[in-house]
UniProtKB/TrEMBL annotation:
Keyword terms of this UniProt record: Lyase, Transferase
Organism: Virgisporangium ochraceum
Entry-linked Pfam families: Citrate_synt (PF00285)
Family annotation (InterPro entries): Citrate_synth-like_lrg_a-sub, Citrate_synth-like_sm_a-sub, Citrate_synthase, Citrate_synthase_sf
One GO cellular component term noted in the UniProt record for this chain: cytosol
Pathway as given in its UniProt record: Carbohydrate metabolism; tricarboxylic acid cycle
Single GO biological process annotation from the record: carbohydrate metabolic process
Enzyme class: transferase
Domain of life: Bacteria
Lineage of source species: Bacteria, Bacillati, Actinomycetota, Actinomycetes, Micromonosporales
Molecular function per GO: citrate synthase activity; lyase activity
Name listed for the protein in its UniProt record: citrate synthase (unknown stereospecificity)
UniProt family annotation: Belongs to the citrate synthase family.
Enzyme Commission code(s) on record: 2.3.3.16
């Protein structure tokens, strides 16, 4: 392997080559932009876009992304990530550890539905590109996804008959489509999936927060795995707030149930 000089420093430099950050004595550039030109001029949502995409968004794009990030900030202590972070905060660890505890629970079943819904919507679009009409594409994709799981990511909610975050987000998407900010293919696909889930005599299965934000991320051109990463960024704010609140109570070693309640003991027969 080619190196410069005899100490191999060029090889090491190439090992961590990046297009994201240029750092040298007195220099910090992010995606080619001096940090001093960004401070006070660029909002956090715009920075997220810049770091992930390599360029700054147009203001309407930033507005749509920010709406999705705001919507996913918190859902209360019954969410495993929040509860775990609050418990961790009482165990003598720092806030960074408490946040990491909560974030590490954001897996496929809790926190991953946005990514999965983006994948589902791309499957619908791929089926359309293959010649299927929208209804046929939706039916085919739903059937394929239900072979893996009875749950369709991005639709239905165990607490809310209609997720209160759904309509504001979809309204913003509709406005962005009307203004030519996004094309609208993915919101059309998502609404077609929602309509296909309507069954006579059965409870509706409307789009939830994961579905609505998946629409936004897909319309804005973010890759499916980034939908989970963006949700993690958003939910980290709520996790931090809950962890900090818990530290203010002075409680130590908080468990998942009050100490006055003992878990049921279920003995099993030997052998």
């Amino acid at each position: 392997m080619e190196t410069t000089g005899t100490d191999g420093t060029a090889e090491v430099a190439r090992w961590w080559a990046t297009a994201i950050t240029h750092m040298a004595p007195g220099v910090i550039e992010l995606r080619g932009r001096p940090v001093q030109d960004l401070i006070g001029c660029v909002g956090l949502t715009e920075m997220v876009w810049l770091m992930l995409r390599g360029h700054l968004p147009e203001p309407p794009q930033a507005k749509l992304l920010e709406a999705a990030l705001v919507a996913g900030v918190d859902h209360g202590p019954h969410a495993p990530s929040i509860a775990a972070a609050r418990m961790a905060a009482t165990c003598g660890v720092g806030l960074n550890n408490a946040i990491a505890t909560g974030v590490n629970l954001l897996g496929d079943s809790h926190g991953g539905a946005g990514q999965q819904c983006v994948e589902l919507l791309h499957d619908v679009r791929a089926a359309q590109a293959g010649g299927a009409d929208l209804d046929t594409a939706v039916a085919t994709v739903i059937a394929a996804w239900r072979e893996r799981s009875p749950y369709l990511p991005g639709f239905g909610h165990r607490f809310h008959p209609v997720d209160p975050r759904r309509d504001p987000l979809l309204g913003l998407v509709d406005g962005a489509v009307a203004d030519g900010v996004v094309e609208g293919h993915f919101v059309t696909a998502a609404r077609a999936v929602e309509a296909a889930l309507v069954r006579p005599g059965r409870r509706p299965v409307p789009m939830n927060i994961d579905g609505a934000t998946a629409v936004i991320y897909a319309e804005l051109g973010f890759a499916a795995p980034l939908a989970r990463g963006l949700f993690v960024l958003s939910r980290s704010i709520g996790i931090l707030a809950h962890a900090w609140e818990e530290t203010q109570t002075g409680r130590r070693n908080k468990g998942p149930i009050p100490p006055t309640v003992l878990p049921e003991y279920r003995p099993t027969s030997a052998g």
